[in-house]
């Protein structure tokens, strides 16, 4: 599964006429959004970064879904859905409709006939708030949760991958069921938040009567980078986050740690990945009263440069034994976890106040990996047991999703390998 | 009060040495954030728009507070505070400390010695998550709510402006006390949300033990523009919003409708303005099932272009009688309300899901005016009674604040006219 060429090919730029011909999935694709020429960037890689400002499009079709190795966009809207229909055919049709709409929106086009291209007597096909906005590197990444495979639902029990585990309760977890789980998920990332919000809202609308949003999360700022030469973003604790993240252009690392391989078990997941989402509340006010020395000890890096303890530069190789045994970086390091690595794409969130005058803020953690049992689970077990950071954070939401491989072409659709 | 020259002057660019000398308010101003040269833009006006991309600074000092006539930035973090101290001197010192911190942050500098410039044994002066980010046109706008003037608090009863009314309950209001009111407010607008969130969080931190956040609101996308030549943003209903808003460069309109005049009553408010904040939830799912014709009838404009009924172009003069009597644009128009005009600076919000699978999304409405009794109140009375839009929205939070004039220079501070 090292073939990432499809995902990094420039997308076709079909004319509107051609687009209207695509409507086999039940949704015609409408007028291109205003805003001039639509540039296209590579699906991943550091050279995609300057394109953030151009508002370019990321190709939707490819061997892998976009939004995983893709250079991390600035903003996030994430939604987990409950499937409310019991009709398998209706669900399959929805997934086809979603795929067509997602492909259109990724190109900066409207859903269907658009916000004002249809009949006046009918609701517009597209809700319209992204009209005039650029594609803004929108990616839509689709996943399937364990509950979809339950007995007596859609006959998928035998297709549940072993790697799609039920995540255990870790010490310190305080999970809210209303912010956890979900039959399906869609991760919308874009450099313009209105584009990401528009995408989730339109998918929810298309799914009306078949799915309902279980929970959703807005992320206002990225905290991880998959492009190691770009500036590393800081999390809400003021520390650089994701310095040693998996590089989205490192095919070898992706194949080893992120993409599901052909021999990994479930055929329909080959070329896909597993996503763990955790809502991590930060005790901002407590952290802000903590000394600089304690903050740096907790992470194992200095706050300004982001250098590991005893080193000068952010990207210097960490010397783990120089750090406290409870330092976050030490405990999460591959050398402490049998080489476990995960691709992080987390975002900071701020959702107002908690009723006690404290900011309801933190990190919406998103991590992709080839096998959760060799990625998130061992790392989180170590962190939950010992991490000095636990005094300042609490996990309040949790979900896991199997993220299928990419949609290969216009005849393909989200979940075809599972339902087809 | 037509003197806006101070607000549009380029800000001084003092050296770090000079900055450290400012610390009279109890807070030294720290190292400039990384990220290279800090450009400065005019405080308002259409020529400030391209600067959005440069990450430039908006001058903090001026005759009026920045963040009102200033070209609307992309993102918002708004906080309302309860004053928890009973000590007038402590509150005054806080307002001085806040002013110094706000002036520093508007220039892209850290609070105090910064995130790692102080003693290792002490908490850092700045929480650090905006290090390396540009000023991003950050403006911080300060206001005072009616409750601060209450008897037996700070001896301010006689200073309460008549225009700082208690807003009545309108038909259809469903106000949540936990999202309403507040003794103080700070509106943080910036093109980078991390910069806006950082600013509110650091002000809250400085205020620890004296104030507590009562409620706060993140706005992911602007819905109004104060620069009529820029593209008009769309709200979550997909319609262009703020087409005929007060132009932030139109000194005459600002003096007539936005800035408090010398003869308006309360001396300490001369050059200030009154802010009404309303959290307006949209019934997104209902709206999305409504026909295009109905949507356009409700607003009185077409969805695509934004032209008033019967007209071709967005900026064509509306012919009100061509619209339905319940059309939003008709009811809100100055001609329907004795010439009432308000300067809108609202933002779209999406705060997850409401527990019934519906997006908790809508408009965080912010409007500035010279006198609420001649601005928001008559307009909202008309809207609450008749507006066809009421079927699709609900006001769930409300607050009013007196926003004093600008901080003139480094010896001046937020609220000096009130407390001084």
Automatic annotation (TrEMBL), chains A, B:
TM region positions:
none
Q: Which InterPro entries match?
A: Dimeric_a/b-barrel, Dyp_perox_C, Dyp_perox_N, Dyp_peroxidase, EfeB/EfeN, TAT_signal
Q: What class of enzyme is it?
A: oxidoreductase
Span list, region Disordered? 222-244
What Gene Ontology terms describe where this protein resides (cellular component)? Answer: cell envelope; cytosol
Q: Tell me the superkingdom of the source.
A: Bacteria
Can you supply a Gene Ontology BP term from the record?
A: iron import into cell
Cellular location of this protein? Cell envelope
- Coarsely, its chief localization is other
Q: State its cofactor.
A: heme b
Cofactor detail note: Binds 1 heme b (iron(II)-protoporphyrin IX) group non-covalently per subunit.
Using the record's annotation, list all stretches that form the Dyp-type peroxidase N-terminal domain.
Answer: 65-220
Recorded hits in NCBIfam families, A to Z, give: Dyp_perox_fam (TIGR01413), tat_substr_1 (TIGR01412)
What family does this chain come from, according to its entry? Belongs to the DyP-type peroxidase family.
Q: What is the name of this protein?
A: Deferrochelatase
Where does this protein come from, organism-wise?
Streptomyces hundungensis
């Amino acid at each position: 599964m090292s073939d990432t060429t499809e995902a990094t090919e420039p997308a076709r730029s079909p004319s509107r006429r051609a687009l209207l011909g695509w409507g086999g999935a039940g949704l015609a694709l409408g007028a291109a959004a205003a805003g001039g020429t639509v540039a296209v960037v590579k699906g991943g890689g550091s050279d995609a970064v300057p394109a953030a400002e151009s508002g370019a499009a990321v190709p939707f079709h490819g061997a892998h879904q976009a939004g995983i190795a893709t250079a991390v966009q600035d903003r996030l809207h994430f939604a987990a859905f409950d499937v409310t229909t019991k009709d398998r055919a209706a669900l399959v049709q929805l997934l086809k409709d979603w795929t067509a709409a997602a492909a259109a929106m990724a190109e900066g086009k409207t859903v269907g006939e658009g916000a004002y291209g249809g009949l006046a007597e009918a609701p517009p096909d597209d809700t319209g708030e992204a009209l005039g906005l650029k594609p803004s590197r929108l990616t839509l990444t689709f996943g399937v949760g364990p509950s979809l495979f339950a007995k007596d639902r859609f006959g998928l029990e035998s297709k549940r991958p072993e790697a799609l585990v039920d995540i255990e309760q870790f010490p310190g977890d305080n999970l809210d069921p209303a912010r956890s789980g979900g039959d399906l998920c869609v991760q919308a990332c874009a450099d313009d938040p209105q584009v990401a919000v528009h995408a989730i809202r339109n998918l929810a609308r298309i799914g009306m009567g078949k799915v309902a949003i279980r929970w959703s999360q807005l992320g206002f700022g990225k905290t991880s980078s998959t492009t190691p030469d770009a500036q590393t973003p800081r999390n809400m604790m003021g520390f650089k986050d994701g310095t040693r993240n998996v590089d989205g252009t490192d095919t070898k690392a992706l194949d080893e740690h992120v993409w599901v391989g052909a021999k990994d078990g479930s055929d329909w997941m080959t070329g896909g990945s597993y996503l763990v989402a955790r809502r991590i509340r930060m005790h901002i006010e407590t952290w802000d009263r903590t000394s600089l020395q304690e903050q740096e000890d907790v992470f194992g890096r200095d706050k300004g440069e982001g250098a590991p303890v005893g080193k000068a530069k952010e990207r210097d190789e960490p010397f783990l034994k120089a750090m406290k045994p409870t330092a976050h970086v030490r405990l999460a390091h591959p050398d402490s976890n049998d080489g476990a690595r995960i691709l992080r794409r987390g975002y900071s969130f701020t959702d107002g106040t908690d009723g006690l005058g404290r900011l309801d803020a933190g990190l919406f953690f998103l991590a992709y990996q080839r096998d959760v049992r060799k990625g998130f689970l061992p790392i989180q077990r170590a962190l939950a047991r010992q991490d000095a950071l636990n005094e300042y954070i609490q996990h309040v939401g949790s979900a896991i999703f199997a993220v299928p491989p990419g949609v290969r072409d216009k005849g393909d659709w989200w979940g075809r390998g599972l339902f087809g």
